[in-house]
Write a structure and sequence with these properties.
The complex is a heterodimer of chains A (846) and B (176). Chain A folds into 6 domains: 3-149, HPT domain (Four Helix Bundle (Hemerythrin (Met), subunit A)); 170-224, Orthogonal Bundle (Helix Hairpins); 228-408, Heat Shock Protein 90; 413-548, CheA-289, Domain 4 (OB fold (Dihydrolipoamide Acetyltransferase, E2P)); 570-703, CheA-289, Domain 4 (OB fold (Dihydrolipoamide Acetyltransferase, E2P)), CATH 2.40.50; 711-827, Response regulator (Rossmann fold, 3-Layer(aba) Sandwich), CATH 3.40.50.2300. In chain A, 39% of the residues lie in helices and 26% in strands. Chain A has a 6-stranded mixed β-sheet. In chain A, strands 29-21-22-32-31-30 form a 6-stranded mixed β-sheet, with no helix packed on it. In chain A, helix 11 packs parallel to helix 12. Chain A is globular. Chain B has 176 residues and is mainly beta. Chain B has a single domain (3-11, 26-161), classed as OB fold (Dihydrolipoamide Acetyltransferase, E2P), CATH 2.40.50. Chain B is 14% helix and 40% strand. Chain B has helices at 3-8, 79-82, 88-91, 136-140, 158-163; strands spanning 24-32, 35-40, 44-49, 63-69, 72-78, 98-104, 107-113, 115-123, 142-148, 151-156. Chain B has a 5-stranded mixed β-sheet with strand order 3-6-7-5-4. The longest helix of chain B is centred in the first third of the chain and has 6 residues, at 3-8. The two termini of chain B are 29 Å apart. Classes of the chains: A alpha+beta (846), B mainly beta (176). Chains A and B meet through helix 8, helix 19, strand 19 and strand 20 of A and strand 4 and strand 5 of B.
Chain lengths: 846, 176
């Protein structure tokens, strides 16, 4: 194709994207003459070049569109149907341009056939002096000075005047990149060879070569970088169209369009971004009437923000809509069988949010054109995971949802962990590696087996294990539980798991080479590479390995193994243990956060009973066995329960096993200590009532019927008071979150900070306590109690305070009154059932 | 072009196949076991001794692994296993087997063979199709069979040999 024509096509495509963004800008702010002037200029440029390149069809169309924009420009008002018409014209221009590109012939008359007469006629009618667009009022207000403007010659300057940059074809850039990749490999091999034979004459230039290669690599990498604005510029149009289609008013804000990343990644990011925005517009934002009913402004907001952080690119997409509905997601996940009932009950909100990215998930009641076809978010998640990225979802009920994408800056060269397994080396992309830990701790294996699958206990998590040997069918371990090697903690978009390997042999920058079809179809490999010593190694695909080993929706230590359907979701994983004589005992595994072995001298007597020195803190423990019976014992097993908040331990004799069984309680427990008993593997087993022991160990927590400490959001602009009050509150048993002012507090609340009560200073600059209370109640629909603090508060609540929902006002120096007010405010709350108790019930009911 | 010439050809450099008269075609002959097979000469890039083959787990049995061929990573395929003439275990005995580099749909593959012969120029008239006596596996891997002065010469279907999934009922047996 003609080089000139090619340049024209590329430049016009950019111009058109920019043009659409400007149009939407203009539509939302019709008094912005700059935007319309830009659109006018851009279209004019296309028109001018069309004449030069002999593209008559395009020229006629752009001419008509330009005239209409000229009209709008001079009137300063863009009626909605005019905007639609102009967008239609621009779409047509785009189609014609695409047609020219597809034809790709050098021949004359490259424009695709087609008639635009109808569109041109409508453009002309709208632009004409007797056009229907003009109301009588506009006719009257039109003065002579603006009439003169229409005859002004369009500005002669073109929008692209940056002589400092040149166009380079992607192809030649790719070729340079490939060559640099090869150079890096060769350099690595040379360094490897030189390290065996020190040579004073060769080493200095070799060092220099090495440094230059790194610089060159960096330089080429930068040349491949492009501003993310390239895909952001399409968003205003997308959002506008979505708004029109859904009948919602949507305001889009974009920040960080200048943030750069590898062009390859820009292409990969484009679809996920579009999809998430569709999702926000369709599912997230409410209808204008719903929004008004909820006390929000009728116009919904979507924001897109990009920035660099620690070698990654972060893209955040958020809306101020209804937020994710946890209950709806729960029931949809259950109904679709994505996750078992007991695992679901144990899931935190963040984990439940992540379910919306599971394959086949969609909560939309009706299938709409925009989203809700049940495809999409899972594809988004897997696309992002494939390139070593991750998606996080945060949501506040009624205040909106936020998707955060974290992506590597480039794909071609990546740091990798070279690991060894069964005598073979493999590379693991470091992006997905969290840490590597030994299989053994203090002589005991972390590995354990439950329901035919391997798990590792790691701090407070029970982590599913992927045995690389088994997945790749390298060899079979005789006894995996006594295997001595490494667990590499991997985190990919949808799963986190431990990869069982022999050892880590190296960390290297590797040049990722795509695999051919024979290997890519397997799913286990992300590519291959040549190491410094010339050896070929396969690069493992972390999410592919998770898929191959049947791991799904695994996150934060709540293993959910892809069980065969016949197994049924009603199985419960149980931890079997013994406590002295008597029958074997069991407790639902999901309630046990970990098991520690404790020396008798680490269990001490305190005022309220026994305590174990756990991570430097004393944790209450209750012996299920009479420890005095076995004074010679040098180790006790402690099961730690209490998933979030206040842990407690149960001292038992020994852990027997983990089993996955249908839990059918045969006999109702006669004692408060057990829920009932059942037969497990032919042995009578007592299922203990954890709630009972919780109550014994943590009476104050249990009295509040809440397993978590209450959190106080403390808002004060003066450091002195913050520092004074924080220890007072902590001593009274509250978790304290501190905000330096009302605005920060509001932002924290909006972004999903979790707290149960707000304690705010009344007098603050910028926004005072009343303002904060009003904002929290009205903008965020927050129902938590709000307590005001005043330096000289008397008894009673002022009318101003109660009007904005402040339940009590106390004096800052009145500690007793402060704590009293907090307790009173929290007592009033309609408490939910004790979370732990609830979970036990669910497990049993299942 | 004889074998010595072929060995001197620049590695991995795409070069259009020499245009033979329409009625005759050129094939590069290789030995698998003791049998001769032909490869379309337009696809053949190089002949080399495979060093340090890295196994690729989970691949079909005829994929021997990956080789570093002068900075390029290529997949090595055992033709004897692919044609069902040998079991994978028997084939892996040789550490540095002889390999023919072929280009298929833009990717380079190394075909492990037991020996290489000359280039055979064959008239299209000498084709006898794929005779009924061949095993189903061998038939799928063969485009046609020619009769040459030095015996019959089955031509290997490179695309089928590299990409096609096997059928479950294929048994390992000799094609003769």
């Amino acid at each position: 194709m003609d080089e000139l024509l090619q340049d024209f096509l590329a430049e016009s495509a950019e111009n058109i994207d920019a043009c659409a963004a400007q149009l939407v800008d203009f539509e939302s702010d019709p008094s912005n003459p700059d935007a319309i002037a830009d659109i006018f200029r851009l279209l004019h440029t296309i028109k001018g070049t069309c004449g030069f390149l002999d593209l008559p069809r395009l020229e006629r169309l752009t001419h008509a569109a330009e005239s209409l924009i000229g009209r709008v420009r001079q009137e300063g008002i863009a009626a909605p149907h005019v905007v639609t018409l102009i967008l239609e014209a621009i779409d047509r221009v785009r189609v014609i341009l695409a047609g020219i590109e597809a034809e790709g012939v050098e021949a004359e008359g490259v424009e695709p056939a087609g008639a635009d007469a109808d569109l041109i006629a409508r453009l002309e009618v709208a632009a004409g002096p007797s056009g229907e667009t003009r109301s009588a009022l506009e006719e009257q207000t039109r003065d002579t000075s603006s009439a003169a403007e229409i005859r002004d010659a369009p500005p002669a300057r073109t929008p692209y005047q940056e002589a400092a940059s040149i166009r380079v074809s992607v192809h030649s850039l790719e070729r340079i990149m490939r060559l640099v990749s090869e150079l890096v490999l060769t350099r690595n091999q040379l360094l490897d060879a030189a390290s065996h034979h020190a040579n004073a004459r060769i080493d200095p230039p070799l060092q220099r070569l090495s440094a230059l290669t790194s610089d060159l690599q960096d330089g080429v990498m930068r040349a491949r970088m492009q501003p993310i604005g390239r895909i952001f510029s399409k968003l205003p149009r997308l959002v506008r169209d979505l708004g029109a289609e859904l009948g919602k008013n949507i305001h889009l804000t974009i920040e960080g369009a200048e943030t750069e990343l590898d062009r390859q990644l820009i292409e990969i990011l484009s679809d996920p971004l579009t999809h998430i925005i569709r999702n926000c517009a369709d599912h997230g934002l409410e209808n204008p009437s719903q929004r008004i009913a909820a006390g929000k402004s009728a116009t919904g907001r979507i924001h897109v923000r990009a920035w660099h952080e620690a070698g990654s690119l972060i893209v955040e997409i958020g809306d101020d809509g209804r937020g994710l509905d946890v209950d709806k997601i729960r029931s949809a996940a259950l109904q679709k069988g994505l996750v078992g009932a007991e695992a679901l009950a144990a899931m935190k909100d963040a984990e439940i949010f992540r379910l919306i990215m599971a394959p086949g998930f969609s909560t939309a009641a009706a299938v709409t054109n925009i989203s809700g076809r049940g495809i999409g978010l899972d594809v988004v998640a897997s696309n992002v995971a494939r390139v070593g990225g991750a998606i996080e979802i945060a949501s506040t009920r009624g205040a909106g949802a936020r998707f955060t994408l974290r992506l590597p800056l480039t794909l071609a060269i990546a740091p990798a962990l070279v690991v060894r397994c069964a005598g073979q080396r493999f590379a693991l992309p470091q992006q997905s590696v969290v840490e590597a830990i030994s299989t053994h701790q203090n002589g005991a294996s972390r590995l354990t087996r439950a329901g035919g699958a391997l798990f590792a206990r790691l701090r407070d998590e029970v982590l599913p294990i992927v045995d690389l040997r088994a997945v790749l069918r390298l060899e079979v371990l005789d006894d995996a539980l006594s295997f001595n090697g490494l667990i590499v903690l991997m985190r990919t978009g949808a799963a986190s798991y431990g990869l069982l390997i022999d050892e880590v042999s190296d960390v290297q920058e590797i040049v990722v080479k795509p695999t051919d079809k024979t290997l890519s179809s397997i799913g286990a490999y992300a590519g291959s590479t040549i190491l410094g010593d010339g050896a070929v190694v396969l690069i493992l695909d972390p999410s592919g390995l998770a898929d191959l080993s049947g791991l799904e929706n695994v996150s934060d230590g709540q293993p959910e193994i892809n069980r065969p359907a016949a197994h049924g979701p009603s199985n419960t994983s149980l931890l079997l243990f013994r406590a002295g004589d008597g029958p074997q005992k069991a407790v639902p595994l999901s309630l046990v956060s970990r098991i520690v072995m404790a020396k008798p001298d680490s269990i001490v007597r305190v005022e309220s009973g026994l305590a174990h020195n756990y991570c430097g803190k004393l944790m209450p423990v209750i012996p299920l066995v009479d420890m005095a019976d076995e004074p010679e014992r040098d180790e006790w097993a402690i099961m730690i329960v209490g998933v979030s908040g206040e842990p407690m331990g149960l001292v038992v004799s020994s852990i027997v096993d983990m089993v996955s069984e249908r839990l059918e309680l045969d006999v109702a427990g006669g004692s408060r200590r057990i829920l009932g008993s059942c037969l497990i593997r032919g042995e009578t087993t007592e299922v203990i009532d954890l709630a009972h022991y919780m109550e014994l160990a943590r009476p104050e927590a249990f009295q509040r019927r809440h397993s978590r400490k209450f959190a106080v959001l403390l808002v004060d602009d003066r450091e002195f008071f913050r520092e004074m009050l924080r220890p007072v509150l902590a001593a009274a048993g509250y978790d304290v979150i501190v905000a330096h002012g009302a605005r920060q507090a509001f932002t924290m609340a909006r972004e999903g900070a979790v707290f149960d009560v707000v304690l705010t200073d009344i007098e603050m600059p910028d926004m005072d306590g009343y303002g904060l209370a009003a904002a929290l109640r009205e903008d965020l629909r927050l129902q938590v109690p709000i307590i005001g603090m005043d330096s000289y508060a008397g008894a009673g609540v002022s009318q101003t305070a109660s009007a904005v929902g402040i339940g009590a006002v106390v004096g800052k120096f009145d500690r007793r009154g402060l704590i009293g007010a907090l307790n009173a405010a929290l007592q009033e709350r309609p408490f939910k059932e004790h979370a732990l108790e609830q979970r036990v019930r669910k497990e049993i009911a299942a | 072009m004889n074998r010595a010439e072929l060995l001197r050809r620049p590695t991995l450099e795409a070069r259009p196949a020499p245009r033979a008269p329409a009625s005759s075609e050129q094939f590069f002959t290789v030995l698998i076991g003791r049998e001769r097979f032909g490869l379309p000469i337009g696809s053949v890039r190089t002949v080399f001794r495979a060093q340090a083959i890295v196994p690729a787990p989970l691949t079909p049995p005829w994929v021997r692994g990956l080789i570093n061929l002068r900075g390029h990573i290529v997949t090595a395929i055992s033709l004897s296993v692919r044609l069902g003439m040998e079991s994978p275990a028997a084939d892996s005995s040789e550490a540095n087997p002889l390999a023919v580099g072929v280009e298929i749909e833009g990717d380079t593959f190394a075909l492990i063979v037991d020996g290489v012969g000359d280039v055979a120029e064959i008239s299209a008239d000498d084709s006898i199709g794929t005779p009924a006596g061949m095993t189903p596996m061998a038939r799928r891997m063969t485009t046609c069979v020619y009769i040459t002065p030095s015996g019959i010469l089955p031509i290997i279907d490179l695309h089928a040999a590299v990409f096609n999934a096997p059928e479950r009922d294929c048994k390992i047996e000799s094609i003769s």
